[in-house]
Amino acid sequence: MEYRRLNEKPTERFKKVTLLHSNDMHGDFLEDKVNEKLTGGVSMLSGYLTKCRNEDPNVIYAIAGDMFRGSVIDSEFLGLSTIQIVNLLAPDVVTLGNHETDYGVAHLLFLEKMATFPIINANLYIKQNETRLFQPCYIMEIDGMKILFIGIITEEVISQTKGENVIGSFIGIQEAAQEIEKICNGYNGLDIDLTVLLTHIGFEEDKKLAQLIDPSWGIDIIIGGHSHTFLTEPAIVNGIMIVQAGTGTDQIGRFDLIVDTVNDRIDSYMWTAVPINEENCPRDARMEELIGSIKAKTDLKYAKVVANFDYELDHHSRWIQTELGGVFADAMRDSLGVDLFFMGSGSVRKSHMGPIVTLQDFTECYPYDGKSYGVKLTGAQLKKALLFIYRDEAWLGDHTEFYQLSKDWHVVYSKSRHELLKCEYQGEEIADDAIFTVGIQEFHYNNLPEFFNLSYEEVKANGAPIVLTTSDVQTLLEYFKENKHLGFGVEGRLEVED
After folding, report:
1. What pLDDT, in 10s, does the model give residues 276-308?
2. Which domain covers residue 134, as residue numbers?
3. Cα atoms found within 13 Å of the Cα of residue 37, Cβ hemisphere only
4. Which terminal residue of the chain has fewer beta carbons within 10 Å of its beta carbon, N or C?
5. Domain C-terminal end among 273, 295, 317
6. Which of 235, 476, 223, 232 is nearest to 372 (CA)?
7. What percent of the chain is modeled with pLDDT above 90?
8. Are strands 352-353 and 372-378 parallel, antiparallel or unpaired?
């Protein structure tokens, strides 16, 4: 791409567009203090958006999914507060993320009615007649241009909505590409000047999707989410620019585009990730008033202390064994009386917590309540599951499911050999025919084949699965209440060799 026209005066043919984008905000509505400076939060984010809109009439703001989950401001009001906040941000278009379905599809459709912005998704539908739940795309007209946005969701949505028997989805990348082709062909007659995919499938999947797109469809940009990827420049695959803006509200992606409206393509561009901080962003008094009123209600309930750790525990990556993840796994293992508890790494949403833990800290760290199941697995089945969990995609930063192991287990895995070099329980190598009781959270149990490479038939052959607890949250809080000053090292649970 060339940069020559970015500083030139726009013409009737070459028009300037500022395309701003966020993804995976996860209820990150309050600013943080980093090195004595305030960063992030929707007050300064809103201030930056207003500043851009005042400076240039051709400004578009898009969100690539996962507005919900991650804070008590969101979870306490089941997303209603989030919709109020995002309404003030006034995005031009939003696509669904997997966490938009956390409160149920019916509730999501209710929240959509509250939204003052269009929500698009091309691949959630009602099974009986294949009627889409949302409009698949949105055409924005600005300065005489037509800009087409198409929304594509991650395959995890179908995992999250398995209890919704009337809801279906096509979930493969091949199928997504076919749907994109249909939509693009359907709007060929409207002289679309710019086409943007808003996806929530993860950065690596975005690159695979771009490879499948025929250049004649006219896709210019993929704005993605789900993998929380921080970039310094767009990835360009098959002539398509792919971007993400990390996670939360600490930064926003910004395209400065010159669009060739005769040839319907991007003539030149610049992209950057803009920090949301006091230096770049004025504050928004309206947003602060709204946030303040919501926070006042949650503070009364969530200020009580629910746990004490020996020190601040860390969970800085979901693809390694961490101290904080280990504490959660041990709490469930000890409370439920199993040999091993697989704690989903993605269930632990904070990078650190403690030493004093309030109910707000806990809820923001572990926002998902649900059942946990007990299953019986042979040693051979456990090894099969671990080999699947530790497959190559896990080490590439892809959005695979990864698990924190509870105590008494020692696993050594070789990446280069794709082998378990050790798999020990209480110091002894496990036998293939040995039987172990294993605890699994409901979401993960509902997706045994996809997440563990185990069929329900082979698992049930060892004995009927049982519900160990109807509330993970209650189990964890009770454990933390009875066990003070928690802390431990993670050495020896999982070792990964190149």
Report:
1. 999 989 999 999 999 999 999 998 899 999 999
2. 4-295
3. 12
4. C
5. 295
6. 476
7. 74
8. unpaired
